[in-house]
Specification:
Elements (H helix, E strand, L loop, with lengths): L13 E5 L4 H13 L3 E5 L10 H6 L7 E4 L2 E4 L1 H12 L10 H15 L1 H14 L6 H18 L12 H11 L12 H11 L23
Parallel strand pairs: 1-2
Antiparallel strand pairs: 1-3, 3-4
Helix pairs in contact: 1-3, 1-7, 4-5, 4-7, 5-6, 6-8, 7-8
The structure holds glutathione.
Glutathione binds next to helix 3.
Length: 222
């Protein structure tokens, strides 16, 4: 097991507004757990429109989870939150390298998470879990992206080098749960080995699985 702890955790818990089946929320919950930071989970009922209430919009005008409250700091957007937590609570700089090249290499994957990961595996899962039907276009996009990631991981233990960074956390959840959208991981052996490496990190917490549709799919990790 790789040790992930090298943190100056705050004395108070960080409040995380999340939806239990949101991969974007899980990405933040996972990092808080790996950093050993106490967390107070606040469930936002997206299915009942709670994210459009005035109270929630005061926290995030985009009306989306996740949002964190860390003392005086209120912050939305999962990738922005990962960057903040790494800068604030990981003094060793393991999770987000301080050198310009390392930081830029991590940023590439945050962009992938907000772009092709959202349009591929995340969209494919959303179509099934929240819409009840497979979206063949999102599945095809997911297949392409996972094949690319598999190629990267053929020669690297993590997405940026030999140590886990927030690049891995930004990609992990929707890759692990891609089968829930009808996207098979079977062809992507390096992706599956990488998922297992992340799941072996001290402090790892999974997102609750959703059922895997009958066509496509495969094993879900986490
Ligand atoms: N860019 C945002 C996207 C977050 C996002 O898409 N959240 C979804 C749940 S996974 C949400 O709150 N959806 C409600 C909506 O957009 O109305 C992030 O990275 O945090």
């Amino acid at each position: 097991m790789v040790s992930a702890m090298s943190t100056n955790a705050p004395a108070h818990p960080i409040r995380l507004h999340r939806f239990v089946r949101s991969g974007h929320s899980h990405r933040v919950q996972l990092f808080l757990s790996l950093l050993g930071i106490p967390v107070e989970l606040v469930d936002v009922a997206l299915d009942r429109g709670a994210h459009r209430s005035p109270g929630f919009l005061a926290l995030n005008r985009f009306g989306q989870v996740p949002v964190i409250e860390d003392g005086e700091v209120t912050l939305a957007d999962s990738n922005a939150i990962l960057v903040y937590l790494a800068g604030r609570h990981d003094p060793a700089g393991q999770w987000l390298p301080r050198d310009p090249v390392g930081a830029a290499r991590v940023q590439v994957w945050l962009s992938v998470a907000a772009g092709p990961l959202a349009a591929g595996p995340a969209a494919a899962r959303r179509a099934v879990v929240f819409g009840g039907a497979i979206d063949p276009r999102a599945v095809a996009e997911a297949d392409r992206l996972l094949a690319l990631i598999d190629g990267v991981l053929a020669s690297s233990r993590f997405l940026v080098g030999d140590r886990p960074t927030i690049a891995d956390l930004a990609i992990y959840t929707y890759a692990a749960h891609a089968p829930e959208g009808g996207v098979s991981l079977e062809r992507h052996e390096h992706v599956r080995a990488w998922l297992a490496r992340i799941e072996a990190l001290e402090g790892f917490v999974p997102m609750a699985p959703s059922p895997i549709p009958r066509t496509g799919g495969g094993d879900v990790s986490g």
